[in-house]
């Protein structure tokens, strides 16, 4: 009786030990297969994800950011986007250049939560690119699509500029303005409303204040810029140049 009980206990112990050993082997095999599954392929495009910002390449198009431009950490730049010297793109903005080019000119600023996009083509026959030239201020929560803003303009908060619209130099759009497709805002004028309508002509003194606002925001962006490591896409061009010249460092 005691012998049979001991034999039964030993069989159970052997069975449990074998089961545990098999579980360990299967876990190791699964871990090995999982490691193989997630290991990066040699054909995979290598990209630098440093967590400071979302710079998203699309096909052959890679967003370009100047060395002294400030782009906030949670901004999304995708595709054909160029941010020039001294420009600033503030928190929460999305610049999506998947269909056409987007450029933010020298010392211009795109403030919080703006969305900038560009269509394949403009129904008005005008250029479908979204161009923001130098010393332009884009107010927060604005939406720009395939429009052109000439130098030294102010676009008020919550404004919408549709395809083919043109804002000529030294002009101001009041907050909440909606510019329909193909509409032209003449130089040195103040427009407002939905749809945007002429309000009055700007004085010479008012036009002189427009670039000063852009410079003041540029100065403020430098304080924010100093909190982050200098990070732009210029190093990609340097790497290409080094590779073409056969330089290895």
UniProtKB/TrEMBL annotation:
Protein's cellular compartments: Mitochondrion membrane
UniProt membrane topology term: Peripheral membrane protein
GO CC terms in record: mitochondrial membrane
Similarity comment: Belongs to the gamma-class carbonic anhydrase family.
Name assigned to this protein: Gamma carbonic anhydrase-like 1
Organism of origin: Hibiscus syriacus
């Amino acid at each position: 009786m005691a012998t049979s009980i001991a034999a039964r206990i030993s069989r159970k112990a052997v069975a449990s030990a074998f089961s545990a050993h098999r579980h360990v082997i299967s876990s190791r095999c699964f871990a090995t297969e999982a490691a193989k599954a997630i290991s990066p392929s040699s054909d995979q495009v290598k990209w630098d994800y440093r967590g400071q910002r979302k710079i998203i390449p699309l096909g052959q198009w890679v967003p370009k950011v100047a060395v002294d431009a400030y782009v906030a950490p949670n901004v999304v730049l995708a595709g054909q986007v160029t941010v020039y010297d001294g420009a600033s793109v503030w928190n929460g903005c999305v610049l999506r250049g998947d269909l056409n080019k987007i450029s933010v000119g020298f010392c211009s600023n795109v403030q919080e939560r703006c969305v900038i996009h560009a269509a394949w083509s403009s129904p008005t026959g005008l250029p479908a690119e979204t161009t923001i030239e130098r010393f332009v201020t884009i107010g927060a929560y604005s939406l720009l699509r395939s429009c052109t803003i000439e130098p030294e303009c102010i676009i008020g908060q919550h404004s919408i500029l549709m395809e083919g619209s043109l804002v000529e130099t030294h002009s101001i759009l009041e907050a909440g303005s909606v510019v329909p497709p193909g509409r032209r805002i003449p130089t040195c004028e103040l427009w407002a409303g939905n749809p945007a309508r002429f309000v009055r002509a700007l004085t010479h003194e008012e036009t002189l204040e427009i670039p000063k606002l852009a410079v003041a925001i540029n100065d403020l962006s430098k304080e924010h810029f100093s909190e982050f490591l200098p990070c732009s896409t210029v190093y990609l061009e340097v790497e290409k140049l080094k590779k073409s010249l056969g330089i290895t460092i």
